[in-house]
Amino acid sequence: MKNPFEKMPTVLTADELIDKAFRRAEKAASALTPKGGPRAKARQREELRIRTVSNVIRDNLRKLLDRTPGVSELPAFYRELVDTLVDRDQFHRSLARVNWAIKTIRNLEQRYVEKIRYSRDPDEIARLRRSFYGRAADVIKDIAEDLEYLNQARNVLKDLPVVDLELPTVVIAGHPNVGKSTLLRALTNAKPEVASYPFTTKGINVGQFEEHYLKYQVIDTPGLLDRPLSERNEVERQAILALKHLGKVIVYIFDPSEYCGYPIEEQTHLFEEIHREFGEFPFIVVLNKVDIADEEKIKAVEEFVRSKGIEPLRISALNGEGLDELKERVIKLVKPMVEEQAKRIMEKELRKYREEL
Ligand code: GDP
To answer: What are the tens digits of pLDDT across the range 99-129?
Structure first.
């Protein structure tokens, strides 16, 4: 799935929109060669101006509405992220007011064009058109704050991460420098894509691998699942919890060599927090950097992990040790979900096919 706000256009300010509409109307009017007497000419010119102003404004605002999804209709992952970034009520209220502006401009257009058609005096026709301009501008000024708000929202929302919500996903967690991105690169053959993600300047890394024609997605979240949740503010926590809608399996990485800079004690503490928070997911725990770690420390971590009822796995993301087994464990856990998903997709396709027959 793409970022649902990818197509949301830049939102013009009220002044820019009014300006654009009036300029287009002047251009259209000057390109027109009206026919008939002075009254008929005035009618044609002013009607064209009114219609052009109305069209430009409505097209612009309509495009904004058409390309902006409502927050409530989004998949849960995006919905929760959006809620951390914008005020959902205000966002919807602003969209509703844009809709109101479209309708109001359309009404004004119809009323003024009608008045012009009944008017016999070229001066009055020009006056009516000016009056329409004033009222149309007032409507747009009325929604000036909404347009500004929507533009601010757009600037944040267009940076939502692009992840495939359909694919079963492995989320990697662990302190910085334990080897998360090295592992992601080792597991997924494609060069991981970096997708932006609110609250982490580094973005999230997304990679995929394929096994027996089924695809899996691996996500590394620098800055997110690498320090205690208790140190996070409310908004950050929510951004982290949104990951729950992606994760099917959590791969938690320990670095028993402690070269990452975090003593084992701190690592076990972080593990406990994340394990508690993401308790509903299956966890795979790996001990990375076994190529350089002391056997004693490895054993200490293993003991801790076993005390949590999980059988740890020794790996080296750098030289590839243990990675085949890690993949196997991931697949074993995720495969039933993948097959379920594949079945659903196939049934959908079949239904479509049958309907077409
Ligand atoms: P991240 O911050 O958790 O993504 O950690 P990185 O993947 O950037 O790894 C941090 C450092 O550890 C890098 O210098 C890696 O080369 C190194 N590293 C990662 N995995 C291993 C490993 O299995 N063995 C060794 N010796 N070094 C590793």
So the answer is: 999 999 999 999 999 999 999 999 999 999 9
3-class SS of residue 212: coil
Going from the C-alpha of 300 to that of each of 174, 307, 308, the distances in angstroms are 17, 11, 13
d(CA 49, CA 130): 10
Instruction: Name which CATH class applies to 169-354.
Output: alpha beta
Buried b (16+ CB within 10 A) or exposed e, 132-157: bbeebbebbeebeebbebbbebbeeb
CATH number of 14-157: 1.20.120.1190
Do strands 214-220 and 313-314 pair parallel, antiparallel, or not at all (unpaired)? Answer: unpaired
**How far is residue 221's CA from residue 205's CA, in Å, rounded to a whole number?**
6
- Separation between Cα atoms, residue 297 and residue 300, nearest integer Å: 5
Rounded Cα gap, residues 187 and 324, in angstroms: 9
Q: In this structure, which residue's CA is closest to atom 17 in ligand 1? A: 179
Q: What is the DSSP letter of 20?
A: H
* Residue 243 confidence (pLDDT): 84
- Positions in the chain whose pLDDT score sits under 70: 1, 189-202
Q: How far apart are CA 13 and CA 244, in angstroms?
A: 37
Residue 184 CA, closest ligand 1 atom number: 7
| Per-residue pLDDT at 13 | 98
Ligand 1 mutation pick, 175, 177, 201, 288, max ligand atoms within 8 A of CB: 177
Name residue, tokens 């979900």. 337
Counting from 1 in the atom list of ligand 1, the atom nearest the Cα of 182 is 7
Give residue 167's region: left, alpha or beta (phi > 0; psi -120 to 50): beta
Give residue limits of the domains in the chain. Answer: 14-157, 169-354
pLDDT of residue 200: 61
Instruction: State the ipTM, two decimals.
Output: 0.98
